[in-house]
Amino acid sequence: MYKKKIVPGVVKTVLGVILAGISWMVASVLVPKIKKSILTPYHYGEDGFWIWLILTVIFAAIGVFLLVLGIMELVRTSQYNQKVVQSGSYIKKTHEKNGFVVFFSNIGKKIAKFFVGIGKGIADLVKTFIHGDWKTKISYFVMGFGNITRGQILRGILFLLFEIVFIVYMVLPRGGAYWLSMLPSLGKVAPNPHGAYNEVLDQWVATPGDQSFRILLYGVLTIFFIIAFVYTWYVNIKQNKIAEEILKSGKPLKSGKDDLKSLVDDQFHKTLLALPTLGILIFTVMPIIFMILVAFTNYSSINDGMNNGLFHWVGFENFKTMFSWDVGGVNYSATFGEILLWTLIWAVFATFTNYFLGILVAMAINKKGIHLKKVWRTILIMTIAIPQFISLLYISKMFSLNGLINGFLIDLGIITPDKAIDFLGGNNPVLARIMVIIINIWIGIPYLMLIATGILMNIPADLYESAKIDGASGWKQFSKITLPYMLFITGPYLLTSFTGNMNNFNVIYLLTGGGPTNPAASGAAGNVGYTDLLITWLFKITQTGTAQDGSQYYLASVIGILVFIVVGVISLVVYSVLPSVKNEEDFQ
Amino acid sequence: MSTKEYTVSEKRHMGMKAASRISNTVIHIILVIISVIWLIPFVCIVIQSFRTEPTSMSRYLLNHPSIQYSWGFGNYINLWKSDFPRWYLNTFIIALVVAVVQTVIVLCMSYTLSRFRFKLRKPLMQFMLILGMFPGMLAMIILYQVLKDIGLAGANAIPGLILVYCASSGMGYYVSKGFFDTIPKSLDEAARVDGATRAQVLFKIILPLAKPIVIYTVLTAFMGPWGDFVFAKYVSGVTPSAYNVAVGLQSWLATDTMTNNYYTMFCAGGVVVAIPVVILFMCLQRYYVEGVTGGAVKG
Description:
By secondary structure, chain A is mainly α. Helices cover about 70% and strands about 0% of the residues of chain A. Chain A folds into 3 domains: about 5-85; about 130-280, no CATH class; about 340-550, Orthogonal Bundle (MetI-like fold), CATH 1.10.3720.10.
């Protein structure tokens, strides 16, 4: 018998205390404000308070729940451990650690390892320089020199070429050095599309000026490039050291031909990964880094840093805007809170309604004695085949004010033409929200049905048979066998579909466009509506803008970062408690 | 007929049978209702595409005397005369190129991450997991500016879209990696012992076994561009000749009024777009199901 670790219980307790504490602090700020806003009507931000209050209460509830859970677990574990010790037959064993602890201790370890590695690398470089021969020493300045003189022509030429390209890029007039030097200020002379008067030419000449956008973009790229160069330089020296040692021991070096050969053999993974990772680096990583940086600037369509004005660093100003009660009469804090709340509600409903209804439909189709199984399945699968934008746009038209559904209702005499229901727009936020959830069920069930069918078939049939012999009812079988099995297998899928739903742009944008408009948030950028998710809000901010502010890209970036944080925290918490996230090697 | 004595267990058995017959009937009815609900939009869209009078309000269920309605192929003829063939061709080209390139990239990525054990493997996978948590919408603003800068936005949106779709496709490796994980490693090792290079192992042994996932990847890669709306809209801007079908058809619906024919033309366009995709999908359905149930869940 093993002892149980107390770590999970401790983690839950501590997390619960932290959550409850944060909620308490937020509440202590909120309550006086609410009192004040009740006493003084028309006080800015009064609409927003209740949303934050709800969020706070939810957080507090989760905190208390975790606290109770943690303490109960602690008690249970200690009782169990006492029993184990008393029984006198326990074995000491290193247990599997709790996901949380592993995660954080791993991060700590990795950071430490990183710095130790750098330190070791530098020490290594110095040692190699002192002890190496003259070929190696020259390679510190002329990359690839050692390789060429030792007969590894191909490697040497590649190293040398890289160095030349790097140096040329850095010293060009508008090259790396220029971009780097401009990065702290993001440009000094604003571009002027109308131009300045040039007396020599006697005409107006457009002045390009500095372009903040390019400075930020190429500045980031230059930093990438420098890191790549330093790494290559380090590899170059290391290779010299290795080559020296190999020659000393009297063995032959690898030729260029061997190098090429190893690219389809030992080093095949490098060949395969080169292109995909390069693509991801340039078209995914770089834009994300850029946009994270944008959150700390005032980049907008007015200050676009290309044709119009410069933009510059503003520090945490935009985050302050997003969390403040009153910026120029706009309560971003309340707007954000409201949209976040709806995003979470939407994600929960969209995920779980689809999940359970999908399983039910799959079970119904798979049940013994049901005819035409293939037909039912094919009809549902067709929804996956038809491009989503067609079905979504069509459904949005079906439910619109002068759409099919209203037409039927009028013809059947249920409503009069002047009382047509605007299901998705209108001034009924609750109806619109319910409608998008229902329509999302229509979209999502076929997919879940497919997944569930595959898994249901894998549940061992004898489980059900023995349950039947024991007299278990249909519901018992479902809740004790089917559901736990499904939840275990599809745990990770549920998580990804939850986060996917939080960012489910298409369904919301194509159905309602975020509407109906939320009058309480009319001052905020992006024409906020009641069904807007954070992601559609982000998009709408980039699309709409006022004459004076333009499209406030910086606010969109702030929202993007916040979405990342929310999704990241949820994923981290769920991953650490999921039973089915095991070592991936187990599958193989 | 002689009355027969039933034992208790037989009676119970019969009772259960009757119960299951009732429940099966109920389930059949529910399935019929579900099928109707799922089919209604598609049936309606096909019917509406043959209407020739404008406005989206329809009263075909009950014969309403106040509305003059007529049927015909007018919408399909208008479709042919409009920008639609251009949009269709655009989308088709994008889908074709993306299907090829994306498949190659995804297979490279997933095969490597499934089979090779190298130092950066775990960090790479974790890094991509974290990257995936950033809303992709964010990258759009800058990607658009960059594409505009190198002249691949607006009128030249098609190559720009292809570039972006292909370049970022490495992120979608999960499903096929899950599939590769199920192919026993002992196959590779046996071939390696016999002197095959890594590349030979991939092309001669693994790929033939991975046919379902290859088809799944091609299918999803081909279907993706038909539905992409936001980014395509962003990149093509106000140049109708560079729209894909999604952006084009949406632009019709957005300008739909009581007097123009855009709504019914949208329906006709939707039918024309859906038919080839649905046929392709139905032919390759088996592989799709295999991919979804095999790889997606494990991923």
